[in-house]
Amino acid sequence: MLRAQDNFFEKWEARTSATQAKQPAWSPPLITIFNGLIQVARTDFTRQITPTRTTTWNYGTSKGVNLIPWANTEIDINLPPFLTHSAPTTIDGAGDMSFAVKYRIATGNAEHGNYAISMCLPISIPTGSYKNGSTNASLSPTFETGKGFGRFNLQNTIGATLPTGNTVKLGRPIVWNTSAQYHLGRYFWPAMESNATFFHGGPNDGKSQEFLMPELLLGKIPVRREQHTRMGLSIGAGEQIATSKFHTYNHALIFTSRFLF
């Protein structure tokens, strides 16, 4: 029985390594969805400050475990975050559970074009408490592209959140994220992100908002001395700064910790 389990995990690891070897070895940005496939346990922490100076902490930020069960495929299981609010009239509580399926359409590593093209389908389930989540489930089809130029890369994603009901209240926002990233030395990945949302329907119908976010990621730092170990750590931080006249919050600090395996 133990030998069979060892063979299962050895085959999984070999298949994952072979799949990832075909794609660019970029660091996943803080908000822009990584264009390739990744196997990681991740948790983020976000602090948002609104125009009225109220603060919301988001513990978890809808992150969890990403797995590569088959070639060109990734499955994400994202745990509900926990939100705390400084506003006395807003009750703290858990957010929504979510999942995602990604298929990598085409890719090439640094020796074969240095690019990645993927499609992703996040699915959110309304498990939140005290209005900290949505009233309805939603689908968020997203198209992802990325291209590297030596140590520099551009990653871009565009998608829409499509609620399964109550669309008059929730709307159908379009989200467009872009990351410009540079690999500095062995472990450092400074980047600048643009995070834009275009609101269609809902209370902000016809409005749009954009944030610029300088960030720095550190990793992957191996946790074993073996040359070909898959396990490693990555940490990072960034700050969203509102650049549009309309914005639902002024700025946000984001911290990430990741265990890659």
Structural class based on helices, strands and sheet pairing: mainly beta
Radius of gyration: 19 Å
Q: State the helicity in percent bands.
A: under 10%
Order of helices and strands: HEEEEEEEEEEEEHEEEEE
Write down the overall mean pLDDT: 96
Span between termini: 23 Å
Number of domains: 1
Query: At the third CATH level, what is the topology name?
Result: Porin
Strand content: over 45%
Specify the biggest β-sheet.
12 strands, antiparallel, barrel
Task: Give me the secondary-structure topology.
Elements: H1 2-20, E1 40-49, E2 55-60, E3 64-70, E4 73-78, E5 82-85, E6 93-94, E7 97-108, E8 115-125, E9 138-139, E10 142-149, E11 152-160, E12 162-163, H2 167-170, E13 174-182, E14 188-198, E15 208-222, E16 232-242, E17 251-260
Antiparallel strand pairs: 1-2, 1-3, 1-17, 2-5, 3-4, 4-7, 5-6, 7-8, 8-9, 8-10, 9-12, 10-11, 11-13, 13-14, 14-15, 15-16, 16-17
Structure report:
The chain is mainly beta. It has one domain (2-260): Porin. A 12-stranded antiparallel β-barrel has the order 1-3-4-7-8-10-11-13-14-15-16-17. The mean pLDDT is 96. Strand 5 (82-85) and strand 6 form a beta hairpin. The protein starts with a helix and ends with a strand. The chain has helices at residues 2-20, 167-170; strands at 40-49, 55-60, 64-70, 73-78, 82-85, 93-94, 97-108, 115-125, 138-139, 142-149, 152-160, 162-163, 174-182, 188-198, 208-222, 232-242, 251-260.
